[in-house]
Amino acid sequence: MAMGLLSALGATVHAADNPNKLRSEMAKAEQEYITLYNKLNTERQFDIVCRTDRPTGSSISVRTCQPRYMLRAVETAATERMQSAVSAAGSTGGANANGPDVGAASGGGVVSGPADKLQAFRQNVLDVQQQNSELMELGKKRDDLQKRFNEASKGGNSQ
What is the DSSP letter of 45? Predict the structure, then answer.
């Protein structure tokens, strides 16, 4: 009888640490964290914005979350590159076989953002979190789920 009880408990623990279930719980905890953080945050440029996109050539959607200021910086850089391309195309008249240099290779700095802005964002997240115990608990819950997910996935059964 004791073995049957232990087996049942073991099955419950194993089912709770199913990587797919843990991944779903992590996503839910992360969304709850972001929603509460954005509600408490007073610096709108530091709101966290999540988008789901399908990369070119892929049928798998990818969810990315970034602070609002980074999204704006990327949008501004893209607009500037397009305007530069239009200006360059008008002035070269097709003489440049490689096309205009629109700075596509130099966009990395914009995507990561200036170091001081990134530091300000991180500090803002910490400040908001430290002022709200519920937000802090959601962060801990998400971190714990990530740890359990990593452990459950080690055996190669992540699918």
Answer: G
| Cα 146 to chain centroid, rounded | 14
- With both helix axes pointing from N to C terminus, report the angle between 115-130 and 133-153 in degrees, rounded to the nearest 10: 110
Per residue in 74-84, pLDDT (tens digit) is 888 888 888 88
Of the chain, the end-to-end C-alpha distance in Å amounts to: 33
Query: Which tokens go with 13?
Result: 């623990």
Q: Which of 154, 124, 155, 152 minimizes the C-alpha distance to 21?
A: 152
- Identity of the amino acid at 59: S
Strand partners, 48: 67
pLDDT beyond 70 at 66: yes
Q: Shortest CA distance to 74 belongs to which of 118, 102, 49, 111?
A: 111
Token pair 């905890």 is at which residue? 29
Query: Which tokens is 53 given?
Result: 């996109």
